[in-house]
Amino acid sequence: MEIATSAIWLVVTILGIVYFYFKRKFSYWKDRGVAYLEPTFPLGNLSRNSIGNLREVFGKLYNLRGECPFVGGFFLFKPVVVATDLDFVKDVLVKDFNNFHGRGIYVNEKDDPLSGHLFSLDGPKWRSLRMKLSPTFTSGKMKFMFPTIVDVSEQFNQSLGEMLHDNSEIDVKEILSCFTTDVIGTCAFGVECNSLKDPNAVFREYGRKIFQPSKLRALTVVLFRIPKLAAALRLSIFSKEITNFFLGIVNQTIEHREKNNIKRNDFMDLLIGLKNNDTLDEEKKVKLGKLTLEQVAAQAFVFFVAGFETSSTTMMFALYELALNRDIQEKLRSEINTVYEKHGGQLTYEAIKDMVYLDQVINETLRKYPPVTSLQRIAQDNYKVANTKLVIEKGTTVMIPAYQIQHDERYYPNPEKFDPDRFQPEVWKARHPMTFLSFGDGPRNCIGLRFGRMQSRVGLAMLLKNYRFEPSAKTPIPMKFAQRGGILAPVDGMHLKVIKI
Ligand code: HEM
Ligand SMILES: *[C@@H]1O[C@H](CO)[C@@H](O)[C@H](O)[C@H]1NC(C)=O
Ligand SMILES: *[C@@H]1O[C@H](CO)[C@@H](O)[C@H](O)[C@H]1NC(C)=O
Ligand SMILES: *[C@@H]1O[C@H](CO)[C@@H](O)[C@H](O)[C@H]1NC(C)=O
Ligand SMILES: *[C@@H]1O[C@H](CO)[C@@H](O)[C@H](O)[C@H]1NC(C)=O
Ligand SMILES: CC(=O)N[C@H]1CO[C@H](CO)[C@@H](O)[C@@H]1O
Questions:
Q1: What is the pLDDT of residue 354?
Q2: Which residues have a Cβ under 8 Å from the Cβ of 351 and sit 6 or more positions away?
Q3: 424: left (phi over 0), alpha (psi -120 to 50) or beta
Q4: Which ligand is in closest contact with the Cα of 113?
Q5: Which atom of ligand 1 lies nearest, measured to the CA of 372?
Q6: What separation in Å is there between the alpha carbon of 363 and the centre of ligand 5?
Q7: Strand 495-500's sheet: what is its strand order?
Q8: Dihedral through CA 173, CA 179, CA 183, CA 189, nearest 10?
Q9: What is the pLDDT of residues 175-188, one digit of tens each?
Q10: Ligand 2 centre and the CA of 118: distance in Å?
Q11: 3-state DSSP: the chain helix, strand, coil percent, rounded to 5?
């Protein structure tokens, strides 16, 4: 009896302490006079990032904006800054980058070598790696890889032609993922693949596995957001199966190339160079060490993960809007055909650069459908916010709601309208530079921006030259976004009618 009563008291007391702890934490923004969304116990209101769709919560938060350059949210009991003012966004991403260079993502290089990649590392490790990898993505290097991308696109065009019947309705999301998987598989791993022809293609299979949402993963992703706890538990982000596959394929590729002295001027060649040679930090005149095999594998892995789904998503939403806007589709096709002719019927690097309207269509697609809907930084030190009395405390996460900013009618009137003319040079130059955040901005923006744009242009040019796209009964109109997963996607694929020209 005695013991039972004491036990009950103990439980009640603990629950009480936890409750008041959260309650005190949840008054964080109120105490500071910052607009915030009432959090729910115990998840706060930003946990849905990992469990469901953050876009809705961000929409609510964004609507609270006022004088203050940001509003407050909670991830579990941790306060999160949600930037709503463009000058403040610029301070975080560009001007005061030194205080916001990290993302604060959990990394466990020891148990989980693939987690040590450019996207998740912070501090000097990130800086040194970014310096080493930047030369990999210059326009000169892109020019070298261009013919490879065109080859893949021709193979893709052919397989698609064989697949189609007179009046086919297909899920373009799936076929575009096959295309970008093949491009990255070829350029980053030097492995010839034809995912469209071979439904069991390994890269496509692993690509699916990485992006497959699951309940268990949702839970661990919440834990990853508390890096200290995750580190104490020594959690691994990627399964042994995924790790072994990527380490194995990189190991084999390197061995094969070194033994046979093969040079292909692709990402893998450049990574092998970084494994064998020291690099020089031009600014500080210091040598940066060589990459280990594990580090090479982690970078090839992140090129794959960050490179295929983002670009295929861009092309998918472009085809969707083009199917709904036939006049824009015809205008674009006519540009593509004219430029092809001008360049002797060849899709050259110069030809692609001449397709200006194509670029506008891609920009407008990325504006309306940013594949990565928000950006993240973490404060290195206490930070005084310009023109306010507010201080962002060390270790606080700052989120930038790119999707909301790009749908704000103050910057893009009638934001739901698909209008490539928003990106005529004189129009976009007049806008605040932080109104377009689909590749992030500042020194930690997307390193693969040029490559992502290039493969999207080649893919779209090839497709629009040879096929016409129309909506079908299964096309999602109006658009409904999936509630899960990290990258913007429709609920149930993207079915369109595809007609040979
Ligand atoms: C249309 C295609 C793409 C989109 C929309 C996209 C978008 C983004 C965004 C929003 C970020 C975060 C930027 C920030 O926080 O400021 C990012 C980072 C990154 N992206 Fe991309 N990306 C694309 C293609 C690619 C490709 C093709 C690659 C590699 C081959 C790539 C590799 C990376 C890497 C490594 C980072 C981390 C950079 C760092 O932290 O230093 N991305 N990307
Ligand atoms: C693309 O495929 C179609 C058949 O579907 C073919 O007529 C056309 O020549 C191909 N184009 C290129 C550039 O390979
Ligand atoms: C790479 O592969 C070789 C065999 O092909 C093996 O002996 C070696 O241990 C592998 N290295 C790593 C780091 O997995
Ligand atoms: C790296 O060193 C190898 C010889 O080990 C050399 O062939 C290659 O050109 C070097 N690469 C760079 C980028 O310096
Ligand atoms: C697309 O947007 C980017 C970034 O705002 C810009 O650099 C590029 O010139 C734009 N292209 C077109 C055709 O508007
Ligand atoms: C997890 C989550 O989203 N929790 C809450 C965040 O705040 C909004 C608005 O107060 C609630 O509706 C959510 O349930």
A1: 95
A2: 339, 340, 342, 343
A3: beta
A4: 3
A5: 10
A6: 6
A7: 168-171, 495-500, 467-471
A8: 80
A9: 999 999 999 988 88
A10: 38
A11: 55, 10, 35
Q: For 33-73, how does the pLDDT look when each residue is reduced to its tens digit (9 = 90+)?
A: 999 988 887 777 776 544 446 778 888 999 999 999 999 99
Q: Which conformational region is residue 266 in: left (phi greater than 0), alpha (psi within -120 to 50 degrees), or beta?
A: beta
How far apart are alpha carbons 257 and 253 in whole angstroms? 6
d(CA 377, CA 60): 21
Both tokens of residue 183? 């491009």
Amino acid identity at 156: F
What residue has token string 């085809």? 319
- What is the tens place of the pLDDT at every residue in 317-361? 999 999 999 999 999 999 999 999 999 999 999 999 999 999 999
Spatial distance between the Cα atoms of 422 and 416, rounded to a whole number of angstroms? 12
pLDDT of residue 51: 42
What is the residue-wise DSSP string for 53-110?
-HHHHHHHHHTT--SSSEEEEEETTEEEEEE--HHHHHIIIIITGGGS-B------TT
The predicted-structure confidence for 410-463, as pLDDT tens digits, reads as follows 999 999 999 999 999 899 989 999 999 999 999 999 999 999 999 999 999 999
CA-nearest residue, atom 4 of ligand 6: 45
Is residue 172 within 6 Å of ligand 1 at its C-beta? no
Instruction: Name the pTM for this structure.
Output: 0.93
Residues whose beta carbon lies within 6 Å of some atom of ligand 2: 154, 157-158, 161, 466, 500
- Ligand 5 pocket residue status of 360, Cβ below 6 Å: yes
pLDDT beyond 80 at 219: no
Q: What are phi and psi of 45, to 5 degrees?
A: -135, 5
Calculate how far, in angstroms, residue 429's C-alpha sits from the geometric centre of ligand 5: 9
Cα–Cα distance between 142 and 144 in angstroms, integer? 5
Lowest mean pLDDT, pick from 22-26, 377-381, 394-398: 22-26
C-alpha 217: how far from chain center: 18
Quote the ligand 4 centre to 130 CA distance (angstroms).
19
**pLDDT, tens digit, 9 for 90 and up, residues 135-145:** 889 999 999 99
d(CA 495, CA 492): 9
Overall residue count recorded for the chain in this entry: 501
* Domains, the chain, ordered by start: 26-500 (1.10.630.10)
Average pLDDT estimate for 224-253: 85
Q: What is the pLDDT of residues 277-290, one digit of tens each?
A: 887 666 666 777 89
Residue 446 is predicted with a pLDDT of 97
Mean pLDDT of 297-302: 94
Helix (H, G, I), strand (E, B) or coil at 168: strand
In the prediction, which pLDDT does 223 show?
Answer: 74
DSSP H or E segment with residue 469: strand 467-471
